């Protein structure tokens, strides 16, 4: 592998340029911005590897599918996505989100960590491998979708229409990062998700707030409805919400115990004194990885600009994500939510489902898991950290678990990468190292 | 008076042009937009009446003060304001808010009803009176402020520094409208107000919402805090909130009973099935005029654009107005609110006071009241409707009650004028009629 590592080292400026090129291109699925341009770019990258590229249309954004048949026994699939989260709130970015900028050894831009950086690390790894050895030791598939950040609503269209494109011996999942102690996280699962909007409506027009004495206020309706969903002890109050959650196994508890979680550093970085419910240690990590959530991601009603406007709003909206675990089913949770609102007298509040996804878990003793972990132990100075599941969500169930395919995630981010938030960034060294490690995994598999 | 009415009739196009001219000029106090330009315009109007104009600076927007000393015994003051509410939400306007447009006999623009139309009706009345009779029968004072829509925060600076400018025999209050049955509303009071923002803070940066499992969410904190302020039965739950409210007198009950309130029509217009708590009749009117409120005028947190963004917000804000009645004191209510939040464990939620104003009531048997009512009975086909108080708020206490000055309000709006909301409008006929009536009040006083 040394000659490949050397090749990567010698061409790191070029690979960094490739990454900066794609980070310049917005691709915000939530706002349908820049999708076509990004698809074209991704196709160009794959073509540099002489991979057979197909642009597979869906009812939403197309999936870029690539297949490199080296005539080998074994096939490894890379699942990635070319879409990114909205850059809002734009005013908190220190440099423009789609003008990649290098500061302090880090590359700042939307998508550097999630997920363009990790995608490119894999493309560059194959490129380097081909330059040095001409031929790969395995067959490769790329499934690169454009709607991961909005819940992959059309990925199952793809899986249903193209079962042949799914067959593989294992899937390397899209993303990952190094934990605060510098250990590569190797992740074996994702939380699921139900993402909804709640809409409350009042009069058909905003009114002078004097009328609030007698006319219903949708902002109050929404506040009261929301306040029934979760209490200040963070207990989600929807009947049946926790029913399908399984107890942790001993092995899961041990893995969780072994995670180095830099509480004090994180709290300091976030400007906080403590975590929710004063959680620490095992309980904190267990909550993060194994417990579901109910999160207000956004809410809006009435006048929100500067100063005092005395207005009675006509509409109030909230965006809520439920992170799901174990066997929780987003469709069932949606029904439970509707029942819950009705039970509390909020039949008037409309629920709009924006995305749904089941949680996924690859078995700890799977061969792919063993291979990735042993490669990481060989490559990195520090022992990798096996994570039973990430705290985040992805369509791992849709693409892998549903078909019995093992999936393992790792990537090039770090604990302070600010995924989904302003000033998203990666260390340039992590990117180059990530290219090398991806090449090693291909080699070992 | 007939010759004055005729003059007004002959020059109604000119007076309408005057009104459209000032409505073209934005003057949004909440956003500090167009103040200086509007002050200049108002001064020009007063100069057309040969009124001695003073631009009186305050720590906020200047007050335009005008005095026409006709050497008479009696003085009448007109209190008006040149500022307007923000035009937001702009997308619901059928024509641009600062491009006055005539449709169906109505003039649409921000400020037509509140308060530029009524201000102009008084200026035009004096103009017509002077053209026909040369001299006015009374002395006139104008106090035209530029911060009424943000709670008149600097009006007391003016009252403290210029007690001589306040002395008067009575004050005609800024605004009013015709009720749904076409009767002129003559209003003898205003509700008070406390307007605050509540700020909840979480981490110092927006985070990926996976972290919501362990990191505090200010949107939840705000929702929980708000839900303790008022229950679904519309009871405000702050200890001591109702303590300073006096019982209605028999006379007040009778006046309230006599109000024609077109419930069915209003509900239909607003697209609603019923009022809050299914109120109707006397109870509805009593709630609107005599009861305090606690209204969410706006709230915002996290991601509010299109689609699903999974973000844990770092900030959540709500704007709340409390309409106050009787002897409720905004400063005391602010203290009670702070105590209430602390008592419920929300010491972390910051309160920002944006405006405060006490309620005001002129005595029913005051001479000015009698004069305005008898003039209205003479002038209008329909009997005027005496309103003990408007449901809205103004600085009547600061300018009048505090100094024992009686104040009576009437104006040129109608029940569908949409004050503070999109598509604010007046009937052009009401404007012309309002000029005539203002001339009559001057004549009779």
Automatic annotation (TrEMBL), chains A, B:
InterPro entries: Cyt/Met_Dipeptidase, Peptidase_M20, Peptidase_M20_dimer. Keywords: Hydrolase, Metal-binding, Protease. It comes from the Bacteria. It comes from Neobacillus citreus. GO terms for biological process: lysine biosynthetic process via diaminopimelate; proteolysis. The keyword Hydrolase applies. It holds the Pfam family M20_dimer. This is M20/M25/M40 family metallo-hydrolase. Residues 191-347 form the Peptidase M20 dimerisation domain. GO terms for molecular function: metal ion binding; peptidase activity; succinyl-diaminopimelate desuccinylase activity. GO terms for cellular component: cytosol.
């Amino acid at each position: 592998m040394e000659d490949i590592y050397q090749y990567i080292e010698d061409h790191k400026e070029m690979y960094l340029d490739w990454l900066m090129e794609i980070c310049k291109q917005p691709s915000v699925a939530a706002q349908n911005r820049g999708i076509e341009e990004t698809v074209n770019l991704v196709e160009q990258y794959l073509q540099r590897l002489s991979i057979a590229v197909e642009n597979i249309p869906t009812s939403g954004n197309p999936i870029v599918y690539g297949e490199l048949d080296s005539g080998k026994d074994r096939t490894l699939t890379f699942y990635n996505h070319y879409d990114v989260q909205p850059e809002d709130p734009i005013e908190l970015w220190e440099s423009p989100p789609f003008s990649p900028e290098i500061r302090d050894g880090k590359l700042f831009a939307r998508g550097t960590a999630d997920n363009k950086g990790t995608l490119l690390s894999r493309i560059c790894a194959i490129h380097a491998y081909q330059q040095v050895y001409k031929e790969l030791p395995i067959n490769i598939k790329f499934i690169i979708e454009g709607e991961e950040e909005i819940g992959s609503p059309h990925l199952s269209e793809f899986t249903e229409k193209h079962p042949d494109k799914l067959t593989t011996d294992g899937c390397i999942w899209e993303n990952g990062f190094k934990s605060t102690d510098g250990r590569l996280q190797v992740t074996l699962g994702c939380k699921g998700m139900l993402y909804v909007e709640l809409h409350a409506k009042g009069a058909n027009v905003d009114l002078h707030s004097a009328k609030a004495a007698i006319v219903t206020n949708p902002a109050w309706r929404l506040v009261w409805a929301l306040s029934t969903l979760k209490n200040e002890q963070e207990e989600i109050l929807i009947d049946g919400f926790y029913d399908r959650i399984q107890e942790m196994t001993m092995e899961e508890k041990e893995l969780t115990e072994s995670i180095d979680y830099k509480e004090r550093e994180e709290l300091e970085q976030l400007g906080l004194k403590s975590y929710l419910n004063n959680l620490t240690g095992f309980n904190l990590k267990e909550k993060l990885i194994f417990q579901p959530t109910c999160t207000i991601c956004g809410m809006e009603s009435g006048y929100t600009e500067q100063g005092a406007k005395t207005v009675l709003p006509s509409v109030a909206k909230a965006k809520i994500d439920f992170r799901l675990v174990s066997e929780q089913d987003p469709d069932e949770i949606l029904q439970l939510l509707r029942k819950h609102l009705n039970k509390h007298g909020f039949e008037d509040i409309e629920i709009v489902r924006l995305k749904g996804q089941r949680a996924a878990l690859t078995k700890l003793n799977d061969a792919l898991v063993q291979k990735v972990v042993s490669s990481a132990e060989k490559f990195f100075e520090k022992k990798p950290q096996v994570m039973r599941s990430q705290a985040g969500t992805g369509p791992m169930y849709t693409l892998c678990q549903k078909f019995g395919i093992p999936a393992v995630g790792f990537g090039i981010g770090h604990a302070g990468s600010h995924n989904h938030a302003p000033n998203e960034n990666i260390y340039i060294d992590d990117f180059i190292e990530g290219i090398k490690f991806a090449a090693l995994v291909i080699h070992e598999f």
